[in-house]
Amino acid sequence: MKITDIKTMLLSRWHEPENQWFTNTFRTVRADCPIIVVTTDEGLEGIGEACAYGGLAHIRSWVEWLKPSFIGRDPRDLSIVLSPNGRTRMYDCAVGGIDCALWDLRGKIEGKRVADMLKADSLKKVRLYASSGCRYDWSDRPEQLIEETLGYLADGYTACKVRIGTYWDWDGVTVDRFNGLMRDLAQEINGRMELMVDGNQRLTEEQALPIAKELDRLGFTWFEEPIPMADVDGYARLNAAVDMPITGGEQFTTLEQFRPYLEKHAYGIVQPDAGWCGITEALKIAEAAYRYGIDLCPHSWHNGLMAIENAHLVAALPNPRVLEVCMIQGPLQWDIFAEKPPIADGWLELPDKPGLGVALGENLESRFPYVEGHYAITVER
Ligand SMILES: [Mg+2]
């Protein structure tokens, strides 16, 4: 079997004004989705979603540039796999998406689920955590965060990750005020679901430490990216200061990049994303982290195909835990599929079909026409 073509489908959908979401100084007005399709001379196709953070047009341009090295090659030949470089986000996302599409194709050729090809006793379903907390405004009703989280609890989710809200300086938000909101949240949830916080690298170490201590005391499951990602020693100090894992690495795409963080125990959990670095590299990172007693819980924002890629990854991990699922992506997220994969009570069942086990819906490019430009706008107050 030979690869005959690789195409990139770019899809977009505007959020209705009431469904736009916001964090820091950004308001996200659109959902984007780049899907890579690898075709063969025997009619089989592999599909993969690249992380949209690579920029849709850039991803397509890199895929076009890389395509000639794949044409005429056997998709089962693992020597054709490209590695992310850890420097160029658009290149890495293109490589990650191609890698996922090749795994889908290999599974279809072998008649096996991707997770089963990666590990003999892989899981059949993975536990999801609802990822959001991107709709509360410190100058309006921060308690919206608690109502939103209670909604996910009512929908059957057993874990939820929240964020730190709109730009703190607009409203003079302090560490004490944020910790107060987290205390209220923990009290309302009252142990009925796991809670995590994502700082999106917005805090200083001086701010992050008292927050980490309070989250640890309140029983939160992890505190993600509290400070800028390059500060490996800052991460190591924070991770040593509390029992709860300090987590990160969603923008790291190579094992080499993770090495100092593993050696210094700077992360309690690592969070690469199969749509950003590929399933192949993510598994290498998982295996290295496991030697340090560190688990992998992938970053997985954006659309359903990336969630499925990361679900197969989680199902094949040495110590599978949870998979992130974006709660605010709108209809593009699951409408890219002919049939939505089964999600019930906060669990995603891996389809019992070869490859990634999902098929794309019809006429996606006319239903979700690509829109150029950035998916978010910067707000000034
Ligand atoms: Mg994150």
Structure in words:
Helix content is 36%, strand content 19%. The chain has helices spanning 56-66, 89-110, 114-118, 144-154, 168-171, 175-189, 205-218, 232-241, 255-263, 274-291, 304-315, 332-335, 364-367; strands at 3-14, 21-23, 26-28, 30-40, 45-49, 125-131, 159-163, 194-198, 222-224, 246-248, 269-270, 295-296, 322-326, 343-344, 347-349, 376-378. The longest helix has 22 residues, at 89-110. It starts with a strand and ends with a strand. The protein contains 13 helices and 16 strands. The protein is an alpha/beta fold and 381 residues long. Strands 6, 7, 8, 9, 10, 11, 12, 13, 14 and 15 form a 10-stranded mixed β-sheet that branches. Strands 1-4-5 form a 3-stranded antiparallel β-sheet. The model has no long low-confidence stretch (mean pLDDT 97). It is globular. The protein folds into 2 domains: 3-113 and 363-376, Enolase-like, domain 1, CATH 3.30.390; 116-349, Enolase-like C-terminal domain (TIM Barrel). Bound molecules: magnesium ion. Residues 198, 224-225, 250, 299 line the site of magnesium ion (MG). The site of magnesium ion has 5 residues, from loops.
Could you give a quick summary of the protein structure above?
The protein is α/β, with parallel strands linked by helices and 381 residues long.
Which CATH C-level class of the largest domain is it? Alpha Beta
Which class best fits the helix and strand makeup?
alpha/beta
Tell me what portion of residues adopts beta-strand conformation. 15-25%
Rg for CA atoms: 20 Å
Order of helices and strands: EEEEEHHHEHEHHEHEHEHEHEHEHEEHE
* DSSP helix fraction: 25-40%
Largest beta-sheet details: 10 strands, mixed
What is CATH's topology name of the largest domain? TIM Barrel
CATH architecture field of the largest domain:
Alpha-Beta Barrel
